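Input chain follows. Return structure tokens only.
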Amino acid sequence: MSKSMETPLPLRILNLILIGILCLTIILPFMHILALSFNNGMDAQKGGIMFLPRDWSLENYTEVFKQNNLINGLMISIFRTVVGTTIGVGLMAMAAYALTVKTLPGRKYITLFIFFTMLFSGGTIPYYLVLTDLNLTNTIWVYIIPSLYSVTNILLLRTFFNQLPMSVIEAARIDGSSEFKIFRTIVLPMSKPVLATISLFTAVGHWNDWYAGTFYVRDEMLKPLATLLQEMLTRQDALADILLRSSGSQAYEMLDRVSITSESLQMATIIFVVLPIVCVYPFIQKYFVKGITVGSIKE
């Protein structure tokens, strides 16, 4: 790179400072939550805990793992994330590839129609009525079927597919390969970066979604982790409610004897919910960095 193209040193220092501040705003709150989750709940109420536990304790996590509804919610979250991401990314990739085929009749109108749905929606009540008519409410499929496509992701995939070498695709067509075979054997292997990026976006969206479980599901055994966490964070007597599930009528008598609090239990649950995504991210980071810049460089 020529010297004229290099970023000036003061600007690089400023960029590093800004990035460092941004990282701290993300890391420090997480460290604070982590410290509270590993600290004795009654001791944490005294205050003064920032980023390291003062009185180490695993009681918060022990209580979390005792809750059958949280373990069941974990299974629901894993199911909807794995199934929803796999099917959703596959369908979106096929739709995006179809929109890159110039011989597709009405390709521009289909693209315009898809884009229109991103700008306008029917509203919450009509959406709920549609889900009810389709018998999706209060079923696990209400998490998956309505989320099988995202207009933004389809357009992102289409942009990436348009940048693939058309000479390779045309050669496969001349050799008699079907469009599906081209898509499966040529397009998908060359699209790992963008597919990993879309998969990450979709998986995180499924994992963090609490809205569907709150408004479209009544069965407690079908609620995902995010919904259970949201209910716990908004409930003032979260600790008493959890103890009531495990100890029955003696729950309120136990409140005076336990060393955990609603806040410490909430912090442990937050870590329990966030940890799976944090563990998965490093394995697809190399693809994510490449895929997020799709469309920014054109040759």
